[in-house]
Amino acid sequence: MKDKALLEKIIAKQNKIFTMMDGDTVDVPSKLYHAEEAAKQWAAIIEKEEGRDKEARPKPVKELAKELHEHIDIFDRSTREDVREYCDLVGRLPYDADETLGV
Question: Are 93 and 6 in contact (CB under 8 A)?
Fold first, then answer.
């Protein structure tokens, strides 16, 4: 995950979606909530002051994208567009061979 600009866009977009999820207007399913928490931890690793952590695998954000896509109907039209853009950004993340090996 060397593309700093892509990572920054993903984090910014997910933070925007999280703001909507944390409001009172959306009833967030538990699987989506757990995916949100994992993605927040992933973002914290990526944004480390000391520099990027090479151990931050893309699995949490890919899981969040999957859950957001599955539950897209709980959001308003504007947030649905943000979800689509987020899924597109996450889809651009480089292939991670470790993920397929279960590492």
Answer: yes
Q: What percent of the chain has pLDDT over 70?
A: 82
Nearest alpha carbon to residue 70 among 14, 24, 32? 32
Helices (H), the chain: 4-21, 30-46, 59-70, 77-91, 97-100
pLDDT category at 102 given cuts 50, 70, 90 is very low
Q: What is the CA radius of gyration of the chain?
A: 13
Q: How confident is the model at residue 27 (pLDDT cuts 50, 70, 90)?
A: confident
Q: What is the number of alpha carbons within 13 Å of residue 83 lying toward its C-beta?
A: 23
Sign of the CA dihedral with 68 first, then 12, 21, and 75 last: negative
